[in-house]
# Entry
Amino acid sequence: VGKRMLRYATPEGNKKIKILKDGAKKLLDNNSAIIVNIKEEKINHEKVLNILPQELEKSLNILPKNKTIIVSCNTHNRSPFAALFLREKGFDAKYLVDGTNSLKEIL
# Structure
């Protein structure tokens, strides 16, 4: 797993796992994505799943394989790791660059 994850450590690889708020909004507006909020404070919105990081592996069965998973936390300290984990499990996952600050503008 380690070597596969290293491919995202390059500038080109890193582009594959991050998304800016405008890109996230476009995917959400087209119903092509959902947000996975991994912070403890829940967000009540129809396009948001609240899943704590320690519960992510147990929650794989509720995540859609046909949509982009946009992972969000407060400061994007944990969301890149969660996005990488989900990508390794076969999901199209990205982390929201500005974290939950961007969610206010997107949702």
